[in-house]
Amino acid sequence: MKDLRFEKAMIIFAHPDDAEVQCAGTIALWIEAGVKVTYVVLTKGDKGTQDPAMTGEALARLRREEQLRAAEVLGVEKVLFLDNGDGELEVTMEKRRSLTRIIREYQPEVLVTHDPWMRYQLHPDHRACGTLALDAMISSRDRLYFSEQIDQGLKPCRIRRVLLFASDQPDFWVDIGSTLDKKMRALGQHQSQVTQWPKWEEWLRKRAENAGASQGIKLAEPFKRLVLS
Ligand SMILES: [Zn+2]
Q1: Separation of 15 CA from ligand 1 center, angstroms?
Q2: pLDDT band, very low/low/confident/very high, at 3 (cuts 50, 70, 90)
Q3: Which helix (H) or strand (E) holds 223?
Q4: Which domain holds residue 170?
Q5: How many structural domains are present in the chain?
Q6: Whose C-alpha in 80, 141, 151, 203 is 20 to 30 A from the C-alpha of 20?
Q7: Cα(49) to centroid of ligand 1, in Å?
Q8: For the domain that residue 133 is a member of, what is the CATH number?
């Protein structure tokens, strides 16, 4: 992973802003090294507000624009929106099927998603997203899973490296000292969210400092890494 000998990565996450909060420093490093990154956003984020004047529909529109702007700051090549209802993401075979199709279409070598096994992960979308992404990764690699996709001309995709963010058992840390500023700028595009968080820039920096502390890294993003044969 450190040697950046891969060309395509896919980030599958639940809400607009999850990728920026959790792994934008790493994504920025990869993109600067020439990696092509695809985002897959599973929900519309249409419940993330305390503003009584805001409707779910208007918020979903706004958050889509914010996500596109954040992706632009980082240089993410493509953003796919699957438009599930916020808080309503469920692990179903149909959703696994559609994510499998996307993985087979884009053929990423690296997958980044939520750690679905994080103890006490309360948000149902975060749990469901991690499970769906990993289940789809497994389905993608063998031709008899969702074989109609193979019949339609798609190729199986064998992803060998996975990074799980928001893990309570991290074992892989990325030094984001050179990209924290870009991460801040990307997250700052999510104005509908960051304006609800007091001192968010300070919080984000502290988070990166804490993540790296055990490793002697000044600013880091932590992951659980899975290496598959
Ligand atoms: Zn989220």
Answers
A1: 5
A2: low
A3: strand 220-227
A4: 8-227
A5: 1
A6: 141
A7: 13
A8: 3.40.50.10320
